[in-house]
Amino acid sequence: MADHQAIPGVSLTSTITPHTTYVNIVTILVAGMGSFLFGYANNSIAGTLAQTSFIEKFLTGSNATSIIGGILGGFQGGGLIGAIIQAPISQRFGRRAATGTAAALVTFSAALQAGSVNIAMFLAARVICGIGAGIVITNCPVYMSEIAPPHIRGMLVGNHAISIVYAYIFSSVVALGFYYVEAPYAWRLQYVMLAFFGLMLGASLFFLPESPRWLCEKERHDEAWIVLRRLHQSKQDPEAQLARAEMAQMKAQIESERSLPTGYIHIFRTPHLRHRAFCCILVWVMGQSTGILVIANLTPVLFGQLGFGTVLQLGLSIVWTTVALIGCFINAALMDRFGRVKLLVTGGFLCSSTLIVEAVLQKYYLGSTNKTGINAAVAMYFLWILFYGSTIDCAAYVYISEIWPTHLRSSGTTIGLVSFFACSIAYTSPASEGFATIGWKYYWVMICVCLVSATAIFFVLPETAKLTLEEIGERFGDTVVVHFGEQFETKTNDETPVANGTEKSAPELQETVV
Questions:
Q1: pTM (two decimals)
Q2: Taking every annotated instance into account, which residue ranges of this chain make up the domain Major facilitator superfamily (MFS) profile (predicted)?
Q3: What is the pLDDT, as a whole number, of residue 236?
Q4: Which residues lie closer than 8 Å to 309 by C-beta, 6 or more apart?
């Protein structure tokens, strides 16, 4: 193994206090601009479908329901393509390059959407937008997981989902504001804003470092060490012991995996990797079967079906997304304490139970004058999003990005997000037509799949909370070259919790780790 002269010796048997630096937190927050861009690109259509100016231009014909299905499905189909091409871009050129590609595609597509002169042009632009969005939603949690310290990785990487929901809220507020613009171009302003955020994401790349794990994989160890030291060095750890230990473990693990084969065929032929792939697929089969994107993209329309006017449709959508944000903060706070798997399973059953009640209420009160029944149906939408946000939203993104070894993390996360978009296409494309024809019965399609997949998650997914990215591999049967155990002991009498490294280094690291 090549000696890394930039790092002086460090003992993994020393006591190291876990900490999170201001620089690390700010870097995660800036990286969340990519997550925000996905959320705005995805949810911008929700407000657009309620805009009178858009309806008058594109949705006055008898095929309006089919056009809505095409708009929703086109974006998700583009997202599927983006999720697939993200892996080769990210693996070859780096995580920052993948984000930059996404920013360029979304900005270009936003200009096309804002300038669309016919529905064909708008549909094509939504597909391109989906490709960029698919790249960034796949790449962001990978990047965040690779720079976050293990003791609060769940909370920090949860910023991915939180930023998406921030975008949902902002998009909903903007849609309501643009509703009062009395001009035929009012609906176009939503996509002018999208172009602005695409440019903002591109500019943010000047402030973001490359992933140290990707740098290490490319044998750019000096650069990786500089990034790690910048992220983790603090007054509490002036010698950057945490960064040194992480660098030693990361370097050893990547070197041990360097000769291993890559690619999707290898993943599905190898039992412990196939297990990971199945876990990723299962997480988003369950996640999408809660109905999240169906409801998120159609909230104004669904509120309209319950008898509310356009202003109330858009206003209730703002409140709905705000409740989603509250749920995300709860989810991020609970993940590292209770674990990802328990939250995912609990969320699957809670969301299904709420949708069952929603379906029953709509069966008896949709289209009626019974205000109590209609208000109860609205309340179920809010309770449902609180359950989803508090249990699934953050945990799902964190889990699928952290269970893969470095050399397969982009490809593995892609498998999870392909499941995300494939299920989204299956549910959102026919949703408008489904609600128009079979109404409340459409919920049962999602409920049945959600209950089965949530049960499967309980038995199939191993827990990953508080483990380093390298140590998570042991839960799937991998060999970990160096252990950096972090076992937190809560002390009384005002003693500070400490993280104890309990394992010795591997023989081949003796040149790097003393």
A1: 0.79
A2: 27-465
A3: 82
A4: none
